[in-house]
Design goal:
- By secondary structure, this protein is mainly α.
- Helix content is about 70%, strand content about 0%.
- The protein has 15 helices and 3 strands.
- A 3-stranded antiparallel sheet has the order 1-3-2.
- Strand 2 and strand 3 form a beta hairpin.
- Helix 7 packs across helix 10, helix 9 runs antiparallel to helix 14 and helix 13 runs antiparallel to helix 15.
Length: about 300
């Protein structure tokens, strides 16, 4: 095109792909004013104006707002700078859309009621800090001001839900269930009783930690019994109970007697709340961790066997 060529608004529309109405709007708003006017007062545009209009069209098609477009045209902001900031905004919008899509998938899978849908939407929109605060409030309410096992308290404080930017429906469902669980007053009361039990045990001299080795021994022996089909009140269960009781007696410096076995049953009752196990399973699902093995059948078998074979 000749650099001196001027085009009417209709011709400009044909060359830029913009409507006459849109070009008129950009002219009136000062985004791309006409180069000049004809003697009759009609708007005329040169090739430089056409190039600016085409740039405006491209930026608007990419979703760049008109304020940023004007800044690019006025050279108060560079095109790369505007592109970078807009790309960041689009990325955030995409994450939001993906999250909404996943929430809708979870709602469809759960068959949620309108109330559940509203709760799910509200919980998923929480920021990382707000999610952490919800769990921190739960920990403070249940373990605060109680001299519970410090290793366990440190572990539960450190284990925070980290919902990814692009979660799976199962992770959203797990987060919603975890939020509901940690705000359940009955569960909070149960965990508080656990904390108070730990504090009482510490006051009696149990300051040796979480006893992972004992837990692993119980799991190993009881899982073997379960795999072999040994009932907790069967004769074959007695040697297992005796071995485990002796190990606990040695670890805690107590005699292996009826009182020890009653004490063990009390510990199992406190530790065996299935909701506590569910808490850790939900955290694992949210954070993409390996799910912890279930101890519920192990504790149930051991408790029943202790009851069957009191010393």
């Amino acid at each position: 095109m000749d650099g001196d060529t001027l085009y009417s608004i209709g011709e400009t529309a044909e060359r830029t792909g913009l409507s006459v109405k849109t070009i008129r709007f950009y002219s009136d708003s000062g985004v791309v004013p006409p180069t000049t006017h004809s003697p009759a007062g009609y708007r005329l545009y040169d090739t430089a104006a056409l190039a600016r209009l085409q740039l405006v069209r491209t930026l608007r098609d990419l979703g760049v707002d008109l304020v940023a477009v004007r800044q690019v045209l006025d050279r108060t902001r560079s095109l790369p700078e505007v592109a970078a900031s807009h790309a960041e905004a689009i990325e955030l919008h995409i994450r939001t859309l993906r999250l909404r899509h996943t929430v809708l998938q979870a709602i469809a899978a759960r068959g949620s009621t309108p109330e559940e849908m509203e709760l799910m939407h509200k919980l998923v929109k929480l920021s990382d800090a707000e999610r952490r605060r919800l769990i921190s409030d739960f920990v403070e309410d249940t373990f605060g001001s109680v001299d519970a096992n410090p290793a366990f308290v440190d572990m539960i404080r450190a284990a925070m839900p980290e919902l990814p930017d692009d979660p799976e429906p199962a992770q959203i469902e797990a987060w919603v269930e975890l939020a509901e669980l940690t705000t359940d007053t009955d569960f909070r009361a149960a965990v508080r009783r656990m904390a108070e039990y730990q504090a009482a045990q510490r006051a009696e001299g149990d300051t040796t930690g979480l006893h992972h080795e004992l837990t692993e021994l119980v799991r190993d022996r009881v899982e073997q019994a379960l795999a072999s089909g040994i009932a907790p009140d069967a004769d074959e269960a007695k040697p297992i109970v005796d071995e485990l009781a002796r190990r606990y007696a040695a670890t805690f410096g107590r005699p292996d007697d009826a009182a020890l076995r009653q004490w063990l049953r009390a510990r199992l009752d406190v530790a065996g709340d299935v909701r506590t196990e569910r808490y850790w399973q939900l955290l694992a699902a949210i954070n993409g961790w390996q799910p912890p093995p279930s101890l519920t059948p192990v504790f149930a078998w051991f408790g029943a066997a202790l009851e069957a074979y009191d010393a």
